[in-house]
Amino acid sequence: MKFLFDLFPVVLFFAAFKFFDIYVATGVAIAATFLQIGWLKWKRRKVDKMMWITLAIIVVFGGATLALHDETFIKWKPTVLYWAFGTAIGAAELLFRKNLIRTMLSEQVHLPDGVWTRLNWSWAGFFAFMGAANLYVAYNFSTDTWVNFKLFGGAGLMLLFVLVQAVFLARHVEEKP
Asked: How do residues 66-76 score in pLDDT, each as one tens digit?
């Protein structure tokens, strides 16, 4: 359910782009991200750091797109977000010896230390790949194709990555006594 909630601004961005243009879609994405945070605050739920980072990036890059009337900025937004996540995961491991994926998932999944390390680096690599893939599509295809990739390609690749990881992790999950 959280995955669908996280996709809310992207789906609205997609719909607004199909009915209007990239600039209306950008405004809708900014408003939808504010609405997400407002909804969580209204429901007295915790707004996680990733959502605050997402808000900051959409406001900066979306705002630049609207102010300068240049779609390049909004096309860079997913890459900046992906690379920020990948960098945070890698830097936490290298600089602080903190495995962020383990921190997020250790309550639900018990794995050997080496598997946690591989899982952590696979997420960092996946985010690096996704950022590069976004730029490739943004600069080599039409804006319409990029918008389609942003919703369907991004969500599809994320789902595929999670499924592959689930198959890999199933072999390593430690049973609780």
From this structure: 999 999 999 99
